[in-house]
Design goal:
35 helices, alpha+beta, elongated, 8-stranded antiparallel beta barrel, single chain, 9-stranded mixed sheet, 1270 residues, 52 strands
Amino acid sequence: MKYLVEHDWDLLQLEMERLEVLVYIDCLVFLATSSLGPIFQAIRNGPLKDKPPPVCSFAYFLESETEIVLKFYQISKNMKKQTDLEQRSCDEEDGYDAVVVGSGYGGSVASFRMSMEGIKVCLIEKGRQWEAHDFPTDSLKIMSASRVENRNIGVSFGPKDALFQLFEQGDSLAAVACGLGGGSLVNAGVMLPTPVRARRNPKWPKEWEWDWDSCEASAATMLRVQSAPVRFPVSKVMGEIADGQIKESCEDVVKLSINFDLEDPPPHLIKLQQTGSCLACGNCLAGCPYNAKNSTDKNYILSAIQAYSLQLHICCFNLNFLVMQAGCIVKTGCQVQYVVKNSHENHQEGKNSRKRRRWLVYLNEIDYVAADFVILSAGVFGTTEILFQSQMRGLELSDTLGSGFSCNGNTVAFLAGSPAPLTAYGLDRKQILERPFQKRPGPAISSSHTSSLGFTIQSAVLPTAYPYLVFKGIVSYGWPTGYWFFHGIIDKMKHVMGFQASQAVALNAMGYDESDGKIIFDKGTNKICFSPPCDPLLPRKVKAFQKLAKKLGGILFLSRYRSTSVHLLGGCNAASDPSHGVCNSNGQVFDTKAFTTVHPGLYVCDASLIPCSVGINPSLTIAAAAEHVSKHLVKDVLEYKSKRGIDLAVKTVDRYPVLADSEKSSTDRSIVAIKETMKGYIGGMPCVAYLKMKMNSNNSVHGESHPLLRGKVGGYVVFEAIEKDRLHVIDGEVDLCEVDYRTPYTQYMHYRLLLASSSGSRYILEGQKIMNPFLLALYAWREATTLHVTFKNISGKSSRPEAINITGELRISLIELLKSLMSLEGNRRRRFVALFAQALLRTYILQIPRRNPEVCTLLDSYDKTYPNSTLYEIKTDDGYTISCKQWKCSQTPCRLKREEQQNPVLLINGYATESYWLPSEPIDLVRTLLEEGREIWLLQSRLHPLHPANNFTIEDIARFDIPAAIAKILELHGKGTKVHVVAHCVGGLAVHMALLGGHVSSTHLASVSCTNSSMFFKLNALATFKMWLPLVPVSMAILGKDKILALLETSKTSFRHQLLKCIACFIPRYERCRYKECEVFSGIFGNAFWHRNVSPSMHHWLNRQSTTRVPMAAFSHLRKICNSGFIVNSHGKNSYLIHPERMAVSTLYISGGRSLLVTPETSFLAIKYMKLHQPSLRHERIVVEGFGHSDLWIGEESYKKVFPPILRHIRLAEQGGNPVISSGKICSGEALAWEDDPYSGYGGFGSWFSPSIITFLLLLWLVILISVFI
């Protein structure tokens, strides 16, 4: 019966997984007619039933109650479209229990069996969903639904998701189908049991025999295998002549998965759509246009989708429908490229639950679906190609991948011009009405004859849509020889003009080939190539065709190809071990790390498992193998979920339609795609990155930037010095406007790529483009096009067993940048360009900070837990009072206990800043040395904010403060004690002045360790230019007599001090800061540290509690040292370097690799000086990457990268006094003169432009500044 259902939006309720629809059946209003059954009218019975229907109301004619349910289910989803998209995104983030790739006889079985057990399944299909009315019915439509790939000449044409996919390679032709249902959409639907001969083949897995008959029976039941109700003309003719022409043949009983409307469907199947009855039109091979074929989308897949609870309650005239959850989600139009093991759990903490799934199934280079189990059922070519692509990304597979390929002994011929009543052309709708059922062509194949020679010949009806000329001369040749080519043209003209065409029939032979074909992967074209197996029965099959042609009359058209196959088998053969196959008998893919181990959760379940030809139509064989695999697959999934403690009862509802189209879903989000190619050197080795970025693609990158400036990254990296093959990006993220609250004025472009190689190794390439508003947009081009990268290996077997952790730079050229802009795709590309330009404008021109500063307070707990110290006030020889803090090892637990007395360590700070005693931090140098069992002395000289002097030089610290501190230590420990000195910046200058000036004897020192200082002092271009300008004399004049500058913003200061601080704020610096004190300090000195290296608590304590005052008096002397490049006295004369004999002490010089003030040349010149003049002692130089100046000590990572070399140097110095260099070699002065600094121009921004350009630009800035104030 049919119902007229009116829908009112106000009547629908969608409560979580429950959908309630109230329909009122009024009465019979129309009588039954010859064309229509009785019609009932459904009247609105809701609260608005008395009001006129709203504009959005509409009516449907529906066949059954079930259609009412589905229609209202669809309507309710449309009403909540936006909510559904959000929920769908959430579900995709969570991933699936299992992902099935492909929907043919293998994938559909696996999807159904898992869905029925409450497993959350996602079925991915490359092709589209084909309805009965979509199938081609003429030659033009079938050509538009076909794709041809000629591998011989490298030409392809036709849509990638075409229904018919033809592959020509060498002298072979292979045909596969593409669509929801796979080959079952367009095959003949012949279901024959697997022959005993195939099951006795040595390659056939013995484990399959245990339940093979039951698996075949299950498959036959689901596919509703039936026999044809009548014997059609072609079957009659073939039955009459086959016995005499095919040697020792017998006729097979042909069973078909076609609905002849003779049997009721199995009771456990809920019939959700009307299945038609076969009209014997003969168009099966082009897709049944009358919905009569039992393809897998109408049974297995439909039943998988139906794995939800459906309740119908009929009470009087009210129908209440309760719709519950779906068990399988189907994604069409999605082609899986490869699968990779998910390593995020090990290498990326804090990710969402999707990252905890075991496998990532990539639909392209960027988008993927996560799952615990992956079942590859994409057909022989599809599955093999996916595994080859996965192997290129590190998946370890058997060397037999692609071997054992079989064409099932397929040979095709076409017989035309026969006088016999074959009736083997398909009929259109008009012709069907003109012929009775028994006189029609019937199903595509209704007769099958098997020869004792080992092959089977079947007659086939060609659909009316097939272009017959293809079979009559284009891809075939005629027999007997003659004017056979014109026969096809004449016959086609008859067909077009309405005359009756000659009788014809297609002949399909199948047999047992050697199954020794090969499928290989061409890395150049990134496609698979195949070579067919040897077919020893081919001459016998051709001879049988010729006999049939003689008997039937007409012209026999034989294929020009040695192999023409529509039944592809093998390539991922099932075997007992990886030396003979790719999978075991349960479909689990072997892992070659061990002989019998498998990749957990990775299965193959399709024709590629079949290890040999079967000699007949393999559809039922494939379905039976899939049933066998599915039994073990379901058990495996349930056990895995049980171990993880997950309830597998019918649960999570997919609150969106169970059939999703990738093309439609891709437009739901605004996506911009862009390509980028960068070239450069990493670790001194050439590297090229070819990247594809998809912005706003539902990634896990967090930040304040606009979603269109965040996205995922795919592509590959060519780094032949590390891996010969490409390094494929298997997971990548990009944020083109990342902001760190520590550096609110700086914009970062952050890239993070997880790379996989064919060797199994995995690497991480992480980089940043750092854009600072220094001198407006002076560095904009270089910063925006230079990616500073770190490359390191994380796992896998590699040709390089040692750890890799190297750095370098990749750059995008102007031409490549233009190509990137031209490659922009997406519906919001203009918006993307506008947002990106706006971000650059805000960074370089407007200089507006991003994010509110994080509230960072100094934690009192650090002060309370800090080890106690003793404060000594010391009077120097010139009468000035300084102080020293002493920490003794006995006051804190010591991890290192030694019998011998260890020498104390004297720490000397830089200019007015604290470097070693950091109460705001959990780890500093003082705590570290105490844990080593050291006694520590911290010098607080006249340069320290606690004792700021109003009139002094650095020479005074060297002459009075340092000797006084060492004398105090010797006083307490004895004259024979030696002291380790650790100094930073100006403190290091003062130590070298004290030694080279003879104020401190080297006999009292055990070692000297200096950071960013030595007897040399080389600054970058900006700092050099500032010291060259008369800024220091002008500053001294502005300060007047009071040369102690208060930095705290709350401090009461004079007008002179306020003016100097105001000028300091206008002086260019590389990084800007929200703290006023930090701005003034960096204006005077330049940036002393990279803000990203320093914790917020450290930054707060440094500016608000530590560096509160700066004694400016020593700047005059410091300026002379900077302009000279080495230590000089207060009069600017070189009175120190001329006494190298006084530096008889082991030294360590450390420089920051990313220089802000002092360049690595400082330590390079110092190490050369010491090796030249003190060659018998141990001298070492270290450049620490990523650090600038004072962040060497106050940085969050200092304890990892800076402290260990200091501790090692102190230990080595104590082991042998001042040991000779371990190698025993002493470099000559000539060799030292040849030596060049490997870190020259390394790191800092000052090397990007020449000093002359910097000088010109800063002079221009100075003129502008003077004009503003004057």
